[in-house]
Design a protein that fits this description.
- The complex is a heterodimer of chains A (256) and B (435).
- Chain A contains twelve helices and five strands.
- Chain A has 256 residues and is of the alpha/beta class.
- Chain B has a single domain, classed as Cytochrome-c3 Hydrogenase, chain B.
- In chain B, helix 4 runs antiparallel to helix 12, helix 5 crosses helix 6 and helix 6 packs across helix 8.
- The chains are: A alpha/beta (256), B alpha+beta (435).
Chain lengths: 256, 435
């Protein structure tokens, strides 16, 4: 990697919130912009450099034929390809179509369905090309983003947790909302990284960082039932922002 | 990115608009000196929110619809909460409501400063973006970043995080912040208010193209406050309706020459929502400081030049900081922090002032709280027809510009609206041909 690596930011189907997180690094943004060459980032600048790019940050999921072609072209032009956020890493909220028939959905939203061109599924970037690193979250964590940029600039792997949100609750001293208040919480099966925000605000984790490695969703579902949650509530909890992540998808499909 | 294909026909095209939220483009064709066709194009792929909401619990709508837009999630959270509270017959206690208004002030600051200072100002100053601008004027960009952070910090403290806040729910908040939590925001908000005044003075000195349109303005209005999170829908043509009456007056229609559905107001046609509309209809309700700054920079009672929207955004940023300070000064943590929401079968409507204009929601739920039907009308889709009318007007009086200059002028015209294409796509037709 050259002294000032070139960085491109790409958008697929998404809300733009993860790209915005980059612009939300108010204290670090200008220093980062000095250390890298922003080669392509249309949400922030109309300047544009030709590829190849040392690092590509990819937001959003694949939902059109054109996306399928475009992500391959981006992969070919990119040294490292980093996916940012739940849409890019699991398919996002729009992956709820994967559990329905999208042909039934189009006329609900659009008056002239024949003009809508969309795939039947919303899929993560890694289903289409090799991904070097993924940042979870809906949205991603600013701290993880800065850590990742710093790590890539110095040629090391970023330090990203693989534990559950429970560890972050313990670290910040938040009493367990399931134990103390009987509030259903996805924290025990969700990958850490957000800082355990929801329990600190007296609500259960809703899993926006997706499943941790080897989660025991069945055991958690048992606990939720004991708290009075019905099966459809458990399914909906698993089928939200990371519905298509394999561990959540399989667990929810077993419950339907 | 523009081209000419003959002496009598000029085509101005931008395939991928920069510095807007989402994926869009534009196309203008001039034949024999007359503007022949104008399209503000949307090719952001659809995500089918209205469909995927069906079958979800009514309490889930705020978190789910927040994901329509990472830049203005509070607008979706607040509009959907209002709609569900209307179904359930909930009136928010004053302090609970003020917390929602406070976090909304944070979103206005964050979104307005992002757009005005980092995406729009570079157009007027001749830069490709804020990072390029920072090479020559670092203090300006540093001030903008600190201002934006002040807004994000309000969202962090009241909402839990800046993008997709977690602390808002149907009926109020999961947890009310303490007085000390909010008092800690005061010094930075005081700085932000003063910095926004200076920023207003700066952007008012920009050179604005000489262009005006006689817009039909539409905004919320509520007595005694600059309407943000509640109010009736009013227009400059005399409309004054409850948000539940929206569909009796506004229709979405398909215009053949464009690939987008357009909103129209009965008896008026296309209309405009957002800062210019709010200012024209409600400027008397701004705080004294915001009113004084607006008068000082010569805004008058109504702004009809869309290029000056950046000045109105700056004035609204002053107001949002001022209003946040006012709310914090009188804050008493509500106990409990929310009104429990018990579902009942019915239809509810909610409408709030997103930074870009009114964001209208309607939901039908059953007695178990299951969403049967949802309809969401975001601000950018309402403005789309007016954006195209502006393009026609601006091109018509700018034909002496070179193609490149004209393309830039057209892009600037679109950016006047701070268009959020990610939002609009839940409703706009997909542009299949990417040109």
């Amino acid at each position: 990697m050259s002294a000032r690596p070139t960085v491109a930011v790409w958008k697929f189907s998404s809300c733009d919130g993860c790209q915005l997180t980059l612009l939300d690094c108010e204290d670090e943004l200008l220093a980062i912009a000095d250390a890298i060459e922003i080669a392509y980032f249309p949400e922030a600048t109309s300047a544009e450099l030709e590829g190849p790019y040392d690092i590509s940050l990819v937001e959003g999921s694949v939902t059109t034929e054109h996306d399928v072609v475009r992500i391959r072209e981006i992969r070919e032009q990119s040294g490292l390809l980093v996916t940012i956020g739940a849409c890019a890493t699991s398919g996002g909220i729009q992956a709820l179509r994967n559990f329905a028939d999208v042909k039934d959905w189009i006329p609900i939203v659009y008056a002239s369905p024949e003009f809508i061109s969309t795939l039947d599924t919303s899929t993560p970037i890694a289903d289409h090309v090799k991904v070097d690193l993924e940042l979870r979250g809906c949205p991603i964590s600013k701290e993880q983003l800065v850590e990742t940029v710093l790590a890539l600039l110095s040629g090391r792997r970023p330090r990203l947790p693989s534990t559950s949100v429970c560890f972050e609750c313990k670290a910040r001293g938040t009493p367990c909302v399931m134990v103390a208040h009987g509030t259903p919480c996805l924290g025990p099966v969700t990958q850490a990284g957000c800082g355990a925000i929801c329990p600190a605000y007296h609500r259960g984790c809703y899993g926006c960082f997706g499943p941790m490695e080897s989660p025991n969703v069945g055991a958690l579902a048992e606990q939720w039932r004991a708290l009075g949650m019905k099966e459809d509530g458990i399914v909906r909890a698993l089928r939200t922002f990371n519905a298509n992540a394999p561990a959540f998808r399989e667990a929810s499909s077993e419950l339907v | 990115m523009s081209s000419s294909d003959g002496p009598s026909t000029r085509e101005i095209r931008t395939d991928y608009l920069a510095r807007v939220e989402g994926e869009g483009g534009m196309y203008v064709r001039v034949r024999d000196g007359e503007v022949d066709e104008v399209q503000f194009k949307i090719f952001e792929p659809p995500r089918f929110f209205e469909a995927l909401l069906r079958g979800r619990q009514f309490t889930e709508a705020p978190d789910i619809t927040a994901r329509i837009c990472g830049i203005c999630p509070i607008a979706y959270i607040a509009s959907s909460c209002n709609a569900m509270e209307a179904v359930c017959g909930i009136e928010l206690p004053e302090q609970v409501r003020l917390l929602r208004r406070l976090v909304y002030c944070g979103e206005w600051i964050e979104s307005h400063v992002l757009h005005a200072a980092m995406l729009h100002a570079p157009d007027f100053l001749g830069y490709a973006g804020a990072v390029e601008l920072a090479r020559d004027n670092k203090p300006l960009v540093e001030t903008a970043l600190r201002l934006k952070k002040a807004g994000n910090t309000v969202m962090d403290v009241v909402g839990g995080r800046a993008v997709h806040p977690v602390n808002l729910r149907v009926g109020g908040s999961y947890r009310a912040p303490s007085r000390a939590d909010l008092q800690a925001l005061v010094p930075e908000l005081e700085w932000a208010r003063d910095a926004a005044v200076e920023f207003t003075r700066l952007v008012a000195t920009f050179e604005f193209p000489d262009y005006e349109q006689d817009y039909a303005f539409v905004a919320l209005r509520h007595p005694g406050e600059y309407a943000i999170e509640r109010g009736r829908i009013v227009s400059s043509a005399g409309l004054d309706i409850d948000v539940s009456e929206y569909e009796q007056h506004f229709t979405e229609s398909h215009v053949e020459r464009s690939n987008a559905l357009h909103s129209t107001l009965a008896g008026v046609g296309n209309y405009l929502v957002g800062p210019l509309a709010r200012y024209a209809l409600n400027s008397a309700e701004l705080s004294p400081l915001a009113r004084d700054v607006a008068a000082e920079v010569g805004l008058g009672d109504v702004v009809r030049n869309p290029f000056r929207s950046i000045v109105v955004r700056a004035v609204e940023t002053v107001y949002a900081a001022d209003e946040a300070l006012r709310i914090i000064a009188q804050y008493e943590p509500p106990e409990p922090s929310f009104v429990p929401a018990v579902p009942r079968a019915g239809t509810g409507h909610g409408c709030t002032e997103a930074p870009r204009g009114i964001c209208w929601h309607r939901y039908q739920i059953d007695g178990e709280g299951v969403i049967l039907d949802a309809k969401i009308v975001p601000p950018t889709s309402q403005n789309q027809k007016t954006i195209e009318e502006d393009l026609v007007g601006v091109v018509r009086q700018s034909l002496d510009l070179t193609d490149d200059e004209l393309a830039h002028r057209c892009e600037l015209t679109i950016r006047n609206y701070d268009p959020c294409i990610s939002c609009a796509t839940h409703f706009l037709r997909l542009e299949v041909d990417r040109a």
